[in-house]
Amino acid sequence: MIKVLLYEDNPQFREGLTMLIDGSTGFSVLASYKNCDHVKEEVEKWKPDVILLDINMPGTDGLEGLKKIRQFNTVAKILMLTVFDDNKNVFEAIRNGADGYLLKKTPPAKLLEYIQDATEGGAPMTSSIAAQVLKMFQETHQVKYQEYNLSERENQVLHLLVEGYSYKMIGNELFIAIDTVRSHIKKIYEKLHVNSKSEAVAKAFRDKLI
Amino acid sequence: MIKVLLYEDNPQFREGLTMLIDGSTGFSVLASYKNCDHVKEEVEKWKPDVILLDINMPGTDGLEGLKKIRQFNTVAKILMLTVFDDNKNVFEAIRNGADGYLLKKTPPAKLLEYIQDATEGGAPMTSSIAAQVLKMFQETHQVKYQEYNLSERENQVLHLLVEGYSYKMIGNELFIAIDTVRSHIKKIYEKLHVNSKSEAVAKAFRDKLI
DNA sequence: ATTTCATCCACATAGTTATGTGATTTGAGG
DNA sequence: CCTCAAATCACATAACTATGTGGATGAAAT
Fold it and tell me: Which CDD domains does this entry report, sorted A to Z (chains A, B) (predicted)?
């Protein structure tokens, strides 16, 4: 029996959801509330498996509720409900530990399926929302390395620099003279268009060379 | 009519998929191939709306095929097919511009729905895969640490260090003596548990202090 | 055959960084 | 009031980094 706690301000939608979930075998609605004002007490009292959180509610809304819940409970699966697939909210919700993000127009049958998914460790998402997540993900994990054409050796040296090795230590590590290390590093600076160790290290991180 | 191009090495599965898709109104399989060896010519010839790419194929596999396709075509929707939800492959696929990622055990009805989703700009994903994406996403977008308790001034100094400023330049920038810069930096090193500029810069990036 | 490039090494010098040992002032909190 | 931490500054020394100039080798590309 999957125990669900429901937060939704619209009485019709709340009733509809409750009937849908309670009327399905294997599911049960523990309680439902119109906002997250007392979410801590409520979650601690009911110990739900899944929490459905509407994003837009008067009073403490779903995003604030999510943050509050995650401060003391990280096991309950939390699914966000929303009318719009608003980019900013999706980002905030995911960052704060939501397990899924569903549009309210999701058909009832699917909703049950999604709730089931969540309890099994999945992250149910409306595909338009998944598309946004992928887009954000791609932006931060772009493939942009190898633009600088560092040679194999130069890459090794750069990695050791990033790890905080001094020239002398790099020489020992790679079995080359310190002067050789120097000339590699000079070449690296040229290729990265920088002129100090810190800048090279910073650039290595920023451009995902490491 | 949604035009689909199919890459799948297993003849049975390939036939099954073709019959399923071709047998559904609004869908049509343009052609199917057993690997991505000639993916460029094929995609340019057929101009499909959706490409289904099996990840594991002898010869040029799905991931390599994906990379090849994305070098000249960014409009076709590409859905990856796989038996396992292997973390590394998911990451690679998304990073290289895949639009969705489906397990082969996806029921036929759903598969069609997913293909439809993709053409409408969605990113259909099996929920176990979505969960992985969310996890990766959370790891890189965690709320910043503030565990090191750097003071306001120390933070300023650290930022300038990261930007490649020398002690002297930092002093000029902040209107303080170089010796003061030194003592701030020493304090920063203590707090970050490092003992060189590069290590501090690296830690600043790694722990999202910047 | 010649050029290019990565890799290797040497020596010298100016400038920077790391470390230590002080010290003063100021504001917040017990 | 007293203490503590942050912020400021000074002087000294050892170690390290940046920069320049110069050279040697070998493999790959033209």
Answer: LuxR_C_like (cd06170), REC_NarL-like (cd17535)
